Amino acid sequence: MKLQKIILAATATVLAVGTGFAFAQFQKSEDAIKYRQSVYTVMSHSFGKISAVVKGEAPYNKEEVAKNAALVATLSTLPWQAFGPGTEGGKAQPEIWSENAKFKAAAEKMQLAVANLNTAAQSGDLENIKKTFAAAGQTCKGCHDDFKKK
Ligand code: ASC
Questions:
Q1: Nearest CA-CA partner of 61 in 145, 133, 126
Q2: Residues 14-60: pLDDT tens digits?
Q3: Torsion on CA atoms 40, 41, 45, 47, rounded to nearest 10
Q4: pTM, 2 dp
Q5: Residue of the nearest CA to atom 2 in ligand 1?
Q6: Which of the two ends of the chain, N or C, has the fewest CB atoms closer than 10 A to its terminal CB?
Q7: Which residues line the pocket of ligand 1, CB cutoff 6 A?
């Protein structure tokens, strides 16, 4: 085989394997959309529970807030794998794919912010919970403003 042919064959194999992985996770774009929306739904529920405490609408219970913050932190790692190529749709703006580096940066910012909230929640420092909660909320909003359809 000529070198060019070998390179072509190798490239094709890498592409095939890469595509195989992408589609092994989600057979259809609808599956990816359902997955990421489900993650956000559960995240929003736990985030909302903490929000009520921060706003003074619910009493502060350390274990409860710690549990919800840990859930949010874990869930925050999940949606991104469901924004792969070919999974456009739902409430996702096309910029997620056309400005993917910007989207990834926003995703990382949010994960860092909810990790900080989780640290505060585990320590039980309500003032710090309020501070980190506000910062985390800003990262949710920032991403929605740029990347989520109204
Ligand atoms: C939530 C939720 C969001 C964020 C965002 C914060 O509870 O569902 O998307 O908080 O509204 O600004």
A1: 126
A2: 555 544 444 447 889 999 999 999 999 999 999 999 999 999 999 99
A3: 10
A4: 0.84
A5: 44
A6: C
A7: 44, 47-48, 51, 137, 140-141
Query: Tell me: the pLDDT tens digits for 47-59?
Result: 999 999 999 999 9
Q: How far is the CA of 79 from the centre of ligand 1 (A)?
A: 15
The answer to whether residues 135 and 113 touch, using CB atoms and an 8 Å cutoff, is: yes
Domain that holds residue 99: 2-147
pLDDT at position 25, please?
Answer: 78
Token pair in block for residue 9: 């064959």
- The CATH number of the domain where 9 resides is what? 1.20.120.10
Q: Which residue's alpha carbon is nearest to atom 10 within ligand 1?
A: 137
**Residue 143 Cα, ligand 1 centroid: separation in angstroms?**
10
125: its two tokens: 């420092």
Q: Identity (one letter) of the amino acid at 98?
A: S
Cα–ligand 1 centroid distance for 85 (angstroms): 26
- Total structural domains within the chain: 1
Distances 12 to 8, 9, 16, 19, 66 between C-alpha atoms, Å: 6, 5, 6, 10, 48
- For 51-93, the pLDDT digits (tens) are 999 999 999 999 999 999 999 999 999 999 999 999 999 999 9
Q: How many Å lie between the centroid of ligand 1 and the Cα of residue 90?
A: 18
